[in-house]
Design goal:
Blueprint: H1 4-36, H2 40-62, H3 69-81, H4 86-93, H5 97-109
Helix pairs in contact: 3-4, 3-5, 4-5
């Protein structure tokens, strides 16, 4: 038979090996955890941005105050004569600054 001290030594060695294996698994899990997780924060932010864009589109569809092109052009001229900057006119009429510049430059060329 196996000596009692030898048996205890073998069991202690096996126990130490088990703890080492457990530590290795925890280390591997912690290193690869990043790859297994989805980027929930980025997904949430993307969904929020999409919802904001949808709200903005709905708002724009409901607020079609200046649909006539001649009306927009006349409003650009009026606001320009009142001293509004190109950026302010664009924001107020919800058109791009480039459109305002084109309208104003076409007036100057006439």
């Amino acid at each position: 038979m196996i000596d009692k001290n030898l048996m205890i030594s073998i069991l202690i060695i096996l126990l130490i090996i088990d703890f080492l294996i457990l530590i290795i698994f925890v280390f591997i899990y912690s290193k690869f955890k990043k790859f297994m997780e989805l980027p929930w924060e980025e997904i949430r932010e993307s969904v929020e941005r999409a919802q904001e864009l949808v709200k903005k589109l709905e708002e724009l569809q409901q607020n079609k105050e200046y649909t006539d092109k001649k009306e927009i052009i006349n409003l650009v001229y009026q606001l320009n004569n009142q001293g509004y900057s190109i950026r302010e006119i664009a924001r107020k009429l919800r058109i791009s600054e480039a459109e305002v510049e084109i309208i104003l430059s076409s007036k100057r060329n006439k």
